[in-house]
Request: fold
Amino acid sequence: MKAALWVFGYGSLIWHPEFPVAERHVARLAGWHRSFCMRSIHHRGSVEAPGLVLALDRATGVHCDGVAFRVAEGAEDETLAALRERELISSAYIEEWLDVTLSDGRQVTALAYVIDPVHEQYCGGLPLEEQAEIIAHATGGRGPNRDYLYSTAEHLAALGIADADLDWLAARVRQLCS
Reply:
């Protein structure tokens, strides 16, 4: 029997996984935080006007709460191929197998896409106001950057996952776009 494939979602995978899910749980990943630290030149921006997308950025003493998905049995290979096509559109993300703790206390190893901190699209440490300005105006192949922010913030809130930076950004971008 093939081992279960778990995927850790911290951004759009939470609300748009695009693969068959057998099980989902709120989960915690230690040593990484969710951050708008990747310039998006495809999905939420362009080469001429990059947007920002979330990535997992490594840091000491932090954690990221997100969703762990167990892929439906028999769909592992297609899911992995689809995720690679979606997430590895540039080489800014790196595939990592990381241990996450599920809300029921189990620990599983899940596939996660983390930022390559030496990649040219990496932009960690941007002030929140600068992030808001970029997100308010960028648009890419999957639509306006602000829609990505709003959907992620709304879905995190619905799951009971607090993210003060995303909440601040969503409120600020709404102000900038009104």
Summary: The chain has a mean pLDDT of 95. Helices lie at 12-15, 76-87, 128-137, 145-158, 164-177. The chain has five helices and seven strands.
